[in-house]
Amino acid sequence: MIYTVTFNPSLDYIIQVDHFTTGQINKTTYEKILPGGKGINVAIVLANFGHESTALGFMAGFTGKEIEHRLENFGCSSSFIQVKEGLSRINVKMKSDEETEINGMGPAIQQEDIDKLFDQLKVLTDQDVLVISGSIPKTLPDTMYEQIIEYVQPNHCKVVVDATNTLLMKVLRYHPFLIKPNNIELGEIFDVTLNTQEEVLPYAHKLQELGARNILVSMAGQGAVLLDENGKEYRLPAPKGNVINSVGAGDSMVAGFISGCIESNYDYEYAFLKGVCSGSASAFSENLCTKEEVETLMNIMK
Ligand SMILES: Nc1ncnc2c1ncn2[C@@H]1O[C@H](COP(=O)(O)OP(=O)(O)O)[C@@H](O)[C@H]1O
Ligand SMILES: O=P(O)(O)OC[C@H]1O[C@](O)(COP(=O)(O)O)[C@@H](O)[C@@H]1O
Hints:
By secondary structure, the chain is of the alpha/beta class.
């Protein structure tokens, strides 16, 4: 079974505003609401590919209920912990002359809620994959991901982490199966600017030296690189297409890589191709990618 953990799920309010201007009333010309948050997006794409998963995490208030309801409509199983106070966040993704995002805070998660999550993680075995991704509310310590990995380590499940900076750096010594920073996040870790695949690869090696097994670095329209656990480097350009909504492209890539690993018995070249094509198929569509959309891109890229 694949489990995803999303600490701070969201309703993503995706809007188009023609020539957004600050300090005045702007009107939308397009709007759509999608359930969001990194682990949730991974679960939706896995379901689109026909993989069973259980989405874990924390929900609060009417927005939390709506996220759960919408997730159910995508055919995803979930077992969220209800936080007593506050609201699950609404994240605004505005397309205009530039893309702007305003992500909400989310509810304060209490220790009793965290304890419930740890209880749920007791069932994991070496047959399972645990995906922990996205930001955590400010009230939680930056050791949160580390604590989870330390807790599940005796069960030998495969752990996938998609997080930034300290959250990510603190888990490397536990040898996560996969990490997926983008080139900007990777650059921030080492205080450098990484624009090309050649510039990115040495820093992927540094993360591997620090303990990560497979390092997938996404680069939006410039494709991605993979450094696999055997030290082999792979590079792919992004497939060509018309970008409609790139929210969730990175999460789709994570789901595609996991799906590719399962389908091919861990042929990383295949998993990498499926990951890249999943990210791009999501970017080329209003919703997250479907199996058919990804297969079409994979056939073009082969
Ligand atoms: N503009 C784009 N054109 C083509 N593919 C894209 C585009 N943006 C994203 N993708 C695909 O999705 C993957 C993940 O996107 P990226 O934006 O790097 O992730 P994140 O959302 O985590 O920052 C990329 O490696 C690429 O395959
Ligand atoms: O958990 P974070 O880092 O605050 O990000 C949450 C946002 O990221 C998303 O999961 C999209 O992530 P990606 O575009 O990186 O795949 C949105 O659905 C959500 O609004």
